[in-house]
Design goal:
The protein is an alpha/beta fold. The protein has 10 helices and 13 strands. The chain has an 11-stranded mixed sheet, with helices on both faces. Strands 7-8 form a two-stranded antiparallel ribbon. Helix 1 crosses helix 2, helix 3 crosses helix 9 (341-360) and helix 5 packs across helix 6 (241-252). It binds ligand 71H. Residues 65, 68-70, 80, 111-114, 118, 240-241, 265, 315-316, 319, 321, 333-335 line the site of the ligand CCN(CC)CCN(C[C@]12C[C@](c3ccc(C(F)(F)F)cc3)(C1)C2)C(=O)Cn1c(SCc2ccc(F)cc2)nc(=O)c2c1C=CC2.
Length: 397
């Protein structure tokens, strides 16, 4: 919550029992066949001396965000920087990885207009519970902002006598007036799925001991991750557009054992994908975002999937902004629902853990939250709160 001093700190409401830390990794397609950009959250030893993790690490993200939110660029950028510039993420930066066991791996996909750092409430909790989480930053122009590091041509480097690496920022691509949304979103969801699969392969390479060069010159010893990924326990997870990305990714890569979609936005998915997804899915929906055709598409994916709706939640109950404003601003911008955001994210995380224990065969105590996955509990509804037309007989699907 906002302190009187104006210093904003992301209220760390998670059990501090285990430290989790984060690290950024960017590789490019010149050195590796895996061009990836991701923030890695993972279990660490309880070391004290470590820096804080910047929640929004570069000012260009504020610029992109204000564009995406249709704010006046200068005003928006300064306002967002003023309010959120000092927020730190509830994870220690770059402390030693806790080797010695194999961890299940989650590949996380952000929503439209978001980017890799905005879902730390979910990612840090998963890391605390013994998962490695790779939160991918998509370069399909659906992110508010993202960047590449490019080798400068030797001429430029000499000319400016600066380092031979330069940043190339790309911003959210607005729909042009009269432009059809579907073709763009369909192309983007395919690109996003490829990026998730490349990120998976990059992490698997690192776990198999392959040398990777991190273009972000950070002093992190990636060899610590050797033999640390349980290659039979790979999960896709995502919010909204990221939920559709999970489905597209699972339909292409059978290494993913199951998927979890938070308030999935199904529009970008082609009819072809529905019969290609064999893996089990958990849909965790908000009360306010969903609509009949969207939920009906989720149902088309197969009866063995699970769906719950968390009462009193909105679309923004899943990203971190829901924790960062007071009641008035939060309600006004639909960043908060009726339910306390900490309770909502707690239900979301516990239901996810129970689903993952079941489908990954984990040996933990997450099955204590099985009732949540069945929609039993005071803040959850089994399935959806949206009135659907009577179930089409299979033949007409
Ligand atoms: C006006 C722009 N118009 C663009 C199409 C609609 C904008 N919009 C609703 C918003 C995002 C909102 C937001 C954020 C953040 C502040 C802040 F002030 F706190 F920073 C305020 C207000 C404005 C709630 C959405 O797009 C909703 N949405 C999202 S929101 C993902 C996101 C984006 C930015 C974030 F910082 C955090 C999370 N991800 C999706 O995949 C999909 C949709 C809709 C369909 C598919």
């Amino acid at each position: 919550d906002r302190r009187r001093s104006g210093e904003t700190k992301l209220v760390v409401c998670w059990s501090e029992k285990k430290k989790r830390i984060s690290q950024d990794l960017m590789t490019d397609d010149t050195v590796q066949s895996q061009a990836s950009f991701l923030r890695l959250y993972y279990p660490s030893q309880n070391t004290l001396n470590s820096e804080e993790t910047q929640w929004i690490p570069r000012k260009e993200y504020y610029c992109g965000l204000s564009e995406f939110l249709n704010m006046y660029r200068v005003v928006g950028e300064r306002l967002l920087q003023y309010y959120f510039g000092s927020v730190i993420c509830p994870a220690k930066w770059n402390t030693a990885f806790k080797p010695g066991e194999k961890y299940p791996l989650i590949i996380f996909s952000h929503g439209l207009g978001a980017f890799r750092t905005l879902y730390s409430a979910i990612c840090t909790e998963m890391a605390s519970q013994g998962f490695i989480v790779a939160s991918v930053e998509h370069r399909d122009k659906s992110a508010s902002a993202t960047y590449y590091l490019k080798e400068k041509s030797s001429w430029e480097a000499q000319e400016e006598a600066t380092s031979d690496i330069e940043e190339e920022w790309i911003y959210y691509q607005r729909l042009k007036a009269g432009e059809e949304e579907l073709p763009l979103r369909h192309k983007q969801v395919q690109e996003r799925a490829e990026e998730c699969i490349r990120a998976l392969n990059l992490i698997l390479d690192i776990s198999s001991g392959k040398q990777v060069t991190n273009l972000l010159s950070l002093n992190f010893d990636w060899t610590l991750l050797k033999d640390s990924v349980d290659t039979n326990r790979i999960v896709g997870m995502g919010h909204s557009f990221g939920g559709a990305t999970v489905i597209e990714t699972l339909s292409r890569e059978s290494k993913f054992k199951c998927g979890i979609a938070f308030d999935a936005w199904m529009l970008p998915l082609d009819d072809e994908v529905y019969h290609k997804v064999q893996q089990p899915l958990l849909f965790i929906n908000s009360e306010k975002f969903q609509w009949a055709t969207n939920v009906m598409k989720m149902r088309k994916l197969g009866k063995q999937n699970k769906m719950i709706t968390i009462k009193g939640t909105v679309h923004q109950s899943f990203p971190d902004f829901t924790f960062l404003t007071g009641q008035f601003v939060g309600k006004f911008f639909k960043l908060k629902g009726e339910i306390d955001p900490n309770i909502a994210i707690d239900i979301c995380n516990k239901a996810s853990l129970a689903f993952l224990q079941k489908h990954l065969g984990l040996k933990k105590d997450f099955d204590q939250w099985d009732p949540l996955v069945n929609g039993e509990g005071q803040n959850v509804i089994p399935g959806t709160n949206i009135n659907l037309p009577p179930d089409q007989p299979e033949s007409l699907d």
